[in-house]
Amino acid sequence: MECKTFDENLALYLYDELEAEERSAFEAHVKSCQNCRTLSEQSRGVQTLLHQRVTVEPTPELLVECREALYRALDHEQFGWRGLIRSWLPVVIGFPASRAVATATLVALGFGLGWVRATFPTSISTTSRKWPPTRRPGRFASP
Amino acid sequence: MDGICLELAGKVPAEGSRLDEADEHDLIRRAQHGDRAAFEVLVRLYDREVLRLAIKVVGSPDEAQDLYQEAFLKVYRSIAHFRFDSRFSTWLYRVVMNVCLDHLRRQKNRNEVQAPESEEGQPEFFQTLADEKPGLDPERSVQGKEIRQRIGTALSQLTPRERMVFELKHYQGMRLRAIGELCGTTEETAKNCLFRATQKLRLALVDLA
Questions:
Q1: Where are the alpha helices (DSSP H) in B59-137?
Q2: Architecture of domain B134-209
Q3: What is the DSSP letter of A132?
Q4: Which residues contact A49 (CB under 8 A, 6 or more apart)?
Q5: Are B124 and A59 in contact (CB under 8 A)?
Q6: Could you count the other beta carbons within 10 Å of the beta carbon of residue B8?
Q7: Which CATH number fits domain B1-114: 3.40.50.1700, 1.10.10.10, 1.10.1740.10, 1.10.760.10?
Q8: A34, B6, B54, B81: which could join B11 in a potential S-S bond, CB 3.0 to 4.6 Å?
Q9: Does the distance separating the beta carbons of A53 and B148 come in below 8 Å?
Q10: B73–A77 CB contact, under 8 Å
Q11: B162 chain-A contacts, CB cut-off 8 A
């Protein structure tokens, strides 16, 4: 085994992720190579050190507080606008008549808007622009 | 029949213990049909582990509580899409992983240095398991605190994915294949993350080892 291979797979060796044959090759290399042995010892030392990190366990009080906050959020989810949409949308989509009603509503809305524009045209602005725009003489203007 | 009644009736084991697969599938199907009590039973089966993982990632009970809520709300909103093609716990922890990863990425983007874990001011929420009695050996206590701060700083230097893979491997003892599945990636990617994480940690902490 080369030292480069040893270095690349050292983490797998330390965390017992190597197959038996690979592990044997590793251990044989460690015995024969001083540099890799030092590297392995350093890595083991760091691995042991990392276990000094404080392991914290959530207390029952924290767990209860988290659950209560979650249940309040679920209430809001269930009875808020998102929940209403979630509960009513399948009904609306699944009900054939409702699709026809939605289509008819959109068509009526379109016609309604058109009627409003035709009956009450937009007022003419007197500030800068003239309507209809004045035709400037150009290349195609009649002589 | 709400979740509490199910527990009293012996139908559902007490929180933290596991159901057999058929009972769990039944709960999931009921939750998918809007049974809130069934969903709450699922929450109580897994939430201690979820909270423990969130605390490991962020170190603060307030932030861990936010991640806990965000994860379970995501599960609640998307449980209808669970297809029973994996274990529910795998799917749940994948959601938790993504929530934690997003949190770590946001922290990195804000260039916040993750505060080292501290037992001060939060005795009511954390039970610390380190064997430490400051009253008996102050010098050792100070050294221990410095080491933990260095560890916290070193861990904060990892990328979010490296941090997650390392946490799951070193502190949870999961196999790399399972970690890859949980993080939505391959075993090879998890191996590479572990390699980079251990390299960085060794460089940062070798003088203490």
A1: 61-78, 88-109
A2: Orthogonal Bundle (1.10)
A3: S
A4: B147, B151, B205, B208, B209
A5: yes
A6: 10
A7: 1.10.1740.10
A8: B6
A9: yes
A10: yes
A11: none
pTM: 0.65
CA angle A70, B110, B106 (to 5 degrees): 40
Nearest-CA distance A80 → chain B (Å): 13
Q: How many C-beta atoms surround the C-beta of residue B134 within 10 A?
A: 12
B129 vs A: CB within 8 A: yes
Q: Encode chain B (209 residues) as per-residue pLDDT tens digits.
A: 333 334 333 444 445 556 788 899 999 999 999 999 999 999 999 999 899 888 877 778 888 999 999 999 999 999 999 999 888 988 998 899 899 889 888 887 775 544 444 444 444 444 444 444 444 566 667 777 788 888 888 988 999 899 989 988 998 888 999 899 888 889 999 999 999 999 999 999 988 87
Q: Where are the domains of chain B?
A: 1-114, 134-209
Q: Does B56 touch chain A (CB under 8 A)?
A: yes
Cis peptide, bond prior to residue A132, ω within 30 of zero? yes
